[in-house]
Specification:
By secondary structure, the chain is an alpha+beta fold. 16% of the residues lie in helices and 30% in strands.
Amino acid sequence: MAIISEIKCARCDRMYSGVRSRCPYCGARRIGRGKYSEDSDNARGKMLISVLIMAVLTVGAGTLLLTTPVEAEDDPPESGSSLELPGEEDIGSIPGAYEVPPPTDPIILEPPPPPPPEITSLIITYDGKKREDITLRIGENVGLRVQIEPVTLQHELEAVWTTSDPEIFDVINAVGVRNGATVTGIGRSRSGAVLTVTVGDKEATCIIRVSG
């Protein structure tokens, strides 16, 4: 079976190759597939030619890929510039590498103590009443007390009593009476002298007069 079929010239009835478009003998132009053409052989021939062409192209493409130079990869970094991580044997040689830090006691912050209450007022009292002016006789003794506000400070703070003129009257802390005082008339004076009681940073005063 021929790869390329032959056809018969319609004019001179001679056989010639099917790849020609004219008869080589009489020069007649081939009409269609020509007379007595072998269709199956011609189709098979075309298929074989196509297979050969595809094989040649495939071989050529493979050869081109194999002969193309591969771009050189970037040079690896020098060993001196790479970061070397320590291995397990190196970590074991590092002091304290596997040591667990000792637990530390938690720091407990205590709230600051509240500020002490402030004294709002001081009042000098005599027989439970507020007094700012008292008249005594020479040698007479009277007991005075100081009232502190707020009352919660009454038993926490200590009062200090003083006289502006000890020749007119004398003052001493009362025995058994907290923040109390005993005042004694000494010298006659209508204008009197000033009795001062001090508790913390607060003061209260009272005029003590002495009659004959």
